[in-house]
Specification:
The strands form 5 sheets. Strands 2-1-11-10-3-6-9-8-7 form a 9-stranded mixed beta sheet. The protein has a two-stranded antiparallel ribbon with strand order 4-5. The protein has 2 domains: about 250 residues, no CATH class; about 80 residues, Phosphoenolpyruvate Carboxykinase, domain 3, CATH 3.90.228.10. It has 8 helices and 17 strands. The chain is α+β, with helices and mostly antiparallel strands. Strand 8 and strand 9 form a beta hairpin.
């Protein structure tokens, strides 16, 4: 089994029979040249087989990285858990109108991180799942799509978290437990990756150690639980793991704080609703969608200092060429087709110069 360390390339190690079953499951969701399921019959298969099929689609067709519980519980651990005294139609629970699966269900979900270019149209994913005769309900929030799959089938539902790429996401990249630090990706058919490198002291946790911990149902806590905004969430996750029979190891390890990553000239700033640009966008949107109820939740400006400078230079050049004070600058809406489309807002030059 090979390993891939976060931000440090690929480290190869000789294949070992003790990892053969893990390598087989990795290949089943990452090998884009081989389809390991019958798309016409998968709807009749087990819940875990369906999840493997969907994982292959997300990784191999949509270039997602697969993180989290499914890699831990199924690809590595090959665990199955079901809640006691609960029928399949009782697996979905609600807290303050937020839906989630019962905590004793293993594996529970697919955590899919969309590639940097994002997702042009979620309808494409829904079409692929529809070909497998799977039913999907979609929920959308600020940073992800949450898909509930096969809610009303005898095998039971599972969820897909589609994590949307975000500017400066490395600043918020955190790790709770060592066993949640794994991922797989397209065409690395015998490799597990580490989201964050924890092989250095005082952690010195190798990928082989993580695999061993998963197989023995134990974990290291690598996040702070006191005086942090996420402390309550971490405590809930610890309790959830212990409920499933996991043991927490050494409590003395300090929280892992990932490096900030390379510096960036990109900024993401909210646009005040009192600003002229906000009011101009509101006016244009109302004009474009006249007759339809329109609510702007928020507008954010994505600003790249270097590209902004290039844009200003291009505008000055076009101003000279056209003798127009604004360089004939106009506004362009970009949007994805389908009912889940969202419409960011960008400037462009009508001459065809599009520096952004």
């Amino acid at each position: 089994m090979g390993t891939k360390k976060s931000k440090s390339g690929v480290v190869s190690s000789s294949s070992n029979n003790m990892y053969a079953d893990i390598e087989q499951r990795i290949a089943q969701v990452t090998d884009s040249t081989h389809l390991s399921f019958d798309s016409t019959q998968i709807h009749k298969a087990s819940r875990e087989a369906k999840m493997m099929a969907v994982a292959w689609i997300m990784v191999c067709k949509f270039d997602c990285r697969l993180y989290g519980g499914f890699v831990r519980d199924w690809i590595v651990g090959h665990f199955i858990g079901r809640p006691k005294n609960k029928t399949v139609d009782q697996w979905i629970q609600y807290d303050n109108s937020t839906a989630h699966l019962h905590p004793e269900i293993v594996p529970a979900d697919l955590d899919c991180y969309l590639p940097a270019h994002g997702l042009s149209d979620i309808d494409e994913i829904l079409d692929e799942l529809g070909k497998l005769q799977m039913t999907v309900n979609v929920h959308r929030d600020q940073w992800r799509y949450l898909l509930f799959v096969d809610q009303n089938t005898p095998t039971g539902p599972f969820t897909i978290d589609l994590i949307i790429p975000h500017i400066g996401i490395h600043k918020y990249d955190r790790i709770d437990f060592d066993v949640n630090n794994l991922y797989v990706e397209k065409n690395y058919t015998k490799h597990l990756g580490m989201r964050i490198d924890i092989t250095y002291a005082p952690y010195s946790i190798t990928l082989e150690k993580i695999v061993d911990n998963i197989r023995k149902n134990r974990f290291y806590l690598l996040a702070g639980v006191k005086s942090t905004p996420c402390g309550k969430v971490i405590v809930e996750r610890i309790d959830k793991m212990k409920t499933r029979g996991w043991q927490q190891l050494d409590n003395a390890l300090p929280p892992v704080v990932p490096s900030g990553g390379p510096s960036s000239n990109v900024e993401l700033k909210p646009v005040p609703n009192t600003s002229s640009i906000y009011q101009k966008i509101l006016q244009k949107m109302n004009s474009a969608f006249s007759g339809n109820k329109l609510e702007i939740v928020s507008i954010e400006e994505i600003k790249n200092v270097e590209l902004q400078s290039m844009y200003e230079q291009a505008r000055k050049q076009i101003q000279k060429q056209t003798s127009l004070s604004d360089g004939n600058e106009m506004m362009l809406y970009h949007g994805a087709k389908g009912k889940y489309a969202y419409i960011p807002y960008e400037n462009y030059m009508s001459s065809g110069v599009t520096p952004f």
